[in-house]
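Dear Dr. L.,

I hope this message finds you well. Following up on our conversation about the binding site, I have prepared a predicted three-dimensional model of the protein together with magnesium ion. For your records, I am including the exact sequence and ligand specification that went into the calculation, followed by the structure tokens. Please feel free to forward this to your student if that is useful.
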Amino acid sequence: MGYKVIARKYRPQTFSEIVGQQHVTRTLANAIGSNRVAHAYIFSGVRGVGKTTTARILAKALNCASGPTADPDNTCDSCREISAGTSLDVLEIDAASNRGIDQIRELREMVRYAPASSRYKVVILDEAHQLTDEASNALLKTLEEPPERVVFILATTQAEDLADTIKSRAQLFQFRSLTFKEIAEEIERIAREENLTIEPGAVAVLARAAEGSLRDGLSLLEQAISYSEDTVTDAQVRELLGVVAENVLDDLVEAIATQSSERALGLVHRLIGDGQNLQHFCREAIRHFRNLLVARVCGASSELVAAPSEEQERLSEQAAKFSEEDLTRFFNILLATDDDLRKKPDPRLHLELGLLKLVNAQRLAPLEEILADLRGSGTPAKSAPSSSGGAPRAMSAAQSASATGHPAVTVARDTPKSSAVAAPGATIPPARTASPASSAPIPASPPRIIARAAGDATGGLASAQVEAIKAALQGQKFLWSMVEHATRWEIEGGELHLFFPTESRSLAEMLQARDPMERLRTVLNQVVGEPLRVCVKLESGRASVPRSSELRARFEEDPIVRAMLERFGGQISKVKRPGEE
Ligand SMILES: Nc1ncnc2c1ncn2[C@@H]1O[C@H](COP(=O)(O)OP(=O)(O)OP(=O)(O)O)[C@@H](O)[C@H]1O
Ligand SMILES: [Mg+2]
Ligand SMILES: [Zn+2]
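The resulting structure of the complex is given below.
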């Protein structure tokens, strides 16, 4: 039977069919056209965005009987063999299962001989970051003396884990996550070709759940098809994926807008009654509030809004009920709640607490202002735009309250029984002005700029620049709500490197979209006086984490923490990293 899973059946066969990676495909096509193909490429990007597909098309382009050509014919023997995976000159190796040195030795033997019947041997090394050190050394030797007419393509979801020596010998292409719109359009196109009726709401649910990966989007479509009869409906897809109905989210928005704790708690009750997974609900709420925040900042028609155009009006209406500050705060409270739901027992309790915080969040402004004041008196004046008054500073204090990646400080007060852990989303004992259910934010953590290696002459200059950049970004709430989660900032060779903790992956991805990236570059240009490239990275698990004593020292020196301690009369009793018990 000719049945093929959708993702395979619709795997692009030419560069022009690849969605959303024009920056890669155009460069490759040009390189082929001008006969400047590199010996080694790194294709980096999250799962299911076209890395392997592009590698195979490159192989075809190089070896096509009518080539080398950027437009392989897909009909000659070579093209067909490559499509079928039977070409002797195109080796696909999964480094995850062939991590060993032996395979790489074998590979080196293999590439020593000229291609059997083609122009090039192409080696596609999938999940290349999984190679053992030994194997990657062996690979390095090959790359150091690249054999004639061999092209290596290392595909990886974690380029930062590749050895620097390998990286420096290869040309790097960063594949980006696909947007909601790109995924939704592909799902619609394929549904049409399959003669399938699918409701627009169902497309939206699938495209959102794909979270930037087209392959995931297509596999979900596949599941939805086998779950449905002739029409794939919105309701069926929600049921299949355990996605809450949109009206539950509308209810949440109403509860917050009317500051009704009762309604918020009723909602949790209803979710439990319906057997919904509370964590799912929280994730959905995060998506929804992210959309509202983006709609508020960039307008509901922005391509950054992950919603179909039919929903734009509803999003605009809801976004208009709140200020940008409120929405950012809601977003952060939900992120912290999600964290709690994941790590702690009793999801019901944590969801209820989270929703109560949302309902009360708008009343927290006074306390935030105190903290913003402290921040102002403790650090040199920031270059926040004066037109918006104290707001940006208040914001940065509020936002960092629940920044998931920041270490937490335990502030023990002199009075008994009132110590609190200012962990993400947790509470500091109510100050005079705060309402009972308040969650008081702690101010930004101490500067986390780590000057480059000691002895680096530019370290001081770079860190001063980083501080200036941060100060300028704090005036741009939308950008700041993303970049503040970066745990490491480094300037090196005309590039700003921003490292995000892996749990902030979605923020890091969001930052890479065109709109925020352009805004970010504009700010950098203004501050530094020349264009800086921006490189967004995820911290690999092995990144060095400061020891507790170093963390404590940093906190002790931090002007904001010091001011807080004075104001509230406390002392630092314990410094913890996020997630630490
Ligand atoms: N950019 C894209 N354009 C068109 N289709 C795509 C794209 N990305 C993924 N797909 C679809 O998803 C399937 C899987 O893509 P591919 O194998 O290239 O992903 P990948 O990036 O190599 O993922 P992984 O990191 O999991 O190996 C393809 O067969 C295709 O149907
Ligand atoms: Mg792949
Ligand atoms: Zn061909």
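In brief: The radius of gyration is 26 Å.

With kind regards,
A. P.
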